[in-house]
UniProtKB/TrEMBL annotation:
Keyword Hydrolase: no
Record GO cellular component, one term: membrane
Keyword Transmembrane among record annotations: yes
InterPro entries: DoxX (IPR032808)
Subcellular location: Membrane
Membrane topology field: Multi-pass membrane protein
Chief localisation class: membrane
UniProt entry keywords in alphabetical sequence: Membrane, Transmembrane, Transmembrane helix
Membrane-spanning segments: 21-40, 82-103, 110-129, 155-178
Protein name: DoxX family membrane protein
Organism of this sequence: Parasedimentitalea huanghaiensis
Amino acid sequence: MHALVSVHNALFGLIERVGDWLMPLAGRLIFASTLLIYYWNSGLTKLGDGIFGIFSPSVGAYAQIFPKQLEAVGYDASQLSVFHWAVVVAGTWAEFILPLLIIIGLATRLAALGMIGFVVMQSLTDVYGHGQTDIKTLGAMFDRFPDGIILDQRLFWAFLLTYLVVKGAGAISVDAVLRRRAMPAIA
């Protein structure tokens, strides 16, 4: 029995050591393959016309982020406040910048934390702003259906992002390069 436990500990100790550098990389690759284009396409729908469209969001951007407020002003985004503009611009930039930071592994923990906040706000906007409250879309935890877009799907997104907050970007990342370069300076 002792030999079996020793083999088990040796094998899974090796897997754990390999996993310490492989799993954060895998998490970033999974994020890239499932959510990068989703968020970048969403960000593109929010850009205004021309080169300065990053500072002048489309009406659709306001409709996505502040649907009830935009409706209240007759879909005239110029009637909304500077606060609304700032939130829409920041949200649009976040859809491009935060995923890029996660993919290259730069400030990964902060970027993943920012994306968790983004997913929470996106979900709350879907429920309270867009009225997505039917059980099929909303989903329910601990039920037998795993396909609810808001609770079920986004819980997986948040878990992946939480993993990156806890573990960081891993050995193959800009964070790791910067950390290695900083080590001699700290010592």
